[in-house]
TrEMBL record:
Gene3D superfamilies: 3.30.70.20. Its cofactor is [3Fe-4S] cluster. GO terms for molecular function: 3 iron, 4 sulfur cluster binding; metal ion binding. It comes from Mycobacterium cookii. This is Ferredoxin.
């Protein structure tokens, strides 16, 4: 699984980074980005939780 943050939707709440800091991080601009590579298997559940929990539905699988 790979994920991507839609920067047109992200409002920088940081829910995703709180749930899975190994996959998501906040940039200096205050928006989230996801790691570019495949989500490691051990973080897939937390990543799915972040997708479901994002208030802006800004995280998409790709
Ligand atoms: S939870 Fe959603 S809106 Fe908040 S920082 Fe993460 S991607 Fe952006």
């Amino acid at each position: 699984m790979k994920v991507w943050v839609d920067d047109q939707r992200c409002r920088g709440h940081g829910v995703c980074t709180t749930l899975c800091e190994e996959v998501f991080s906040l940039t200096d601009d205050g928006y989230a980005v996801a790691i570019d590579s495949e989500v490691p298997a051990q973080f897939e559940a937390a990543t799915e939780e972040a997708i479901a929990s994002c208030p802006e539905q800004a995280i998409v699988k790709r």
